[in-house]
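Lecture 7 notes: from sequence to structure.

We start with a single chain of 191 residues. Read the sequence below before looking at the structure.
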Amino acid sequence: MAIFLNLFIYSSVWSGTISGHVECKGVKSNQWAVVYVDAISGKEFSPPAQPVTMDQKGKEFIPHVLPILKGTTVEFLNDDPFVHNVFSPDEVADAVNLGSWGQGEKKSHTFNKLGNAVMLCNLHPEMEGWIVVLPTPYFAVTDEKGDYTIKDVSNGKYMLKTWHKKLAPSQSEAVVASDGVTKVDFTLTKQ
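Now the structure, written as tokens:
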């Protein structure tokens, strides 16, 4: 009991939240920008034991942008009543082609390289999704308004970076304090 209590106190006292707003200039929406804590010197993070899911439904990849920790396995589910395919020409995804499969079926791929990969369906060329492979588990995707929140970040000073499929990346230093909220806003512009 004492060990659990000490761990609880440690985790709640030594972490905080980073939140803010991302203004995406020159595109229709502030949604789908990724904000993340960059690599932390001397720190490696284990990927989650369970895979994460990117669905195919209504001829769309859902979510449209999926940030993951390096080493994470992604399951691609087909929720449409017709056949889909998943492939990516990008090195980050090992130029993978998972083939085609029907409704209710899924196939998976593990992403072991940092960067971003466009996910496509060769049967439906209008479909496009993105997987962004990151060095830390501290990340968020902006909502429709451009707001984001990254919780449970350990105290310290970090480099916060952004990714957007059409806009130039940006970065800013963030200092996280115990049980506090660090506000960091970004304005992203065309490359």
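The first helix runs from residue 2 to 13. Keep this in mind for problem set 3.
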